[in-house]
Amino acid sequence: MKYECIFSDIDGTLLNDQHQISFKTKAKVNELTRQGIPFILVSARMPKGMKLIQQKLALKTPMICYSGGLIVENDKVLFSEVIDAQTVSELLDFIAQQSEVCTTVYYQDCWKVKDIQDPWVKQESQITGIIPEMMKDVKEAHKILCMGESKEISILEQKLLKCFKNVNVYRSKSTYLEIMSRSVSKAKAIKMICRQYQIPLDKTVSFGDHHNDIEMLKTTQWGFVMNNAPKEMLDQIKRHTLSNNDDGIVYALENLIGE
Fold first, then answer.
1. Does pLDDT of 1 surpass 70?
2. How buried is 146 (Cβ within 10 angstroms: 0-12 exposed, 13-18 middle, 19+ buried)?
3. Last residue of some domain: 181, 196, 217?
4. Is 117 strand, coil or helix?
5. C-alpha angle with apex 126: 120 to 129, nearest 5 degrees?
6. What is the domain extent for residue 144?
7. 156 and 35 share a domain?
8. How many structural domains is the chain composed of?
9. Residue 158, domain CATH
10. How many CB atoms within 10 Å of residue 96?
């Protein structure tokens, strides 16, 4: 076997545009599990938003949550890196002054929002199946998520990048802006898991579809960008596979490894 471990983003990668895992992809993941090849979920989602998917695939592997900010295995925390309370407060104040985007805060398995009825909150809740809590005393956070129209998100992103050097700021899709600790990355989390389980990096595969996946795709031996990714990402990553609606993960594993 050419590879010994697979790391996969969830939204836009493992899931199709209906936020479902296709029968073909699920069958391939189950086949890998039977062969003893770990299939590890890597996402900006919170643990609770990943567990249902993990259960559907009958996975027992660790989960890389918050783009590497939290790694859990069987509800045991293996690693955690947060944005400190002071920086969270400064970020929330700055965003409120600069923009009218919907801003929410995540910590461990809690998702806190200012308005449960906000259309963006409702949309995210429907996608992930997570019910939010009202934002009260917010301290440290694993992630701040801003949701809004693409143009507004783009403007806010540039302002945050200019004013806050101690956090990572990136779009996970055109309407979502993710803010996490500066030291957090999917690539760093992958290296930690590979060290723990003694898996050589040159035996790893990864799949992703957006900007926060670039480091991950460059870290593994075979990093594939989904064909539904933004053009600038398709230009940066040399290995492409089919889209999330066309079982791109299955196609790459069965046809492209070793190219």
1. no
2. buried
3. 181
4. coil
5. 125
6. 85-181
7. no
8. 2
9. 3.30.1240.10
10. 12
Rounded distance, CA 106 to CA 132, Å?
10
- Domain at 74, CATH number: 3.40.50.1000
Q: How far apart are CA 135 and CA 189, in angstroms?
A: 29
pLDDT digit string, tens, across residues 100-151: 999 999 999 999 999 999 999 999 999 888 899 998 878 899 999 999 999 9
Q: How confident is the model at residue 186 (pLDDT cuts 50, 70, 90)?
A: very high
Q: Strands 110-113, 133-134: parallel, antiparallel or unpaired by DSSP?
A: parallel
Tell the residue number behind the tokens 């938003």, with chain if given. Answer: 49
Residues 76 and 191 grouped into a single domain: yes
Distance between CA atoms of 166 and 94, rounded to whole angstroms? 14
How far is it, in rounded angstroms, from Cα 87 to Cα 201?
34
- Average pLDDT, integer, range 244-250: 98
How many Å apart are CA 187 and CA 217, to the nearest integer?
8
In terms of phi and psi (left: phi > 0; alpha: psi -120 to 50; beta: otherwise), the region of 95 is alpha
Predicted structure pTM score: 0.90
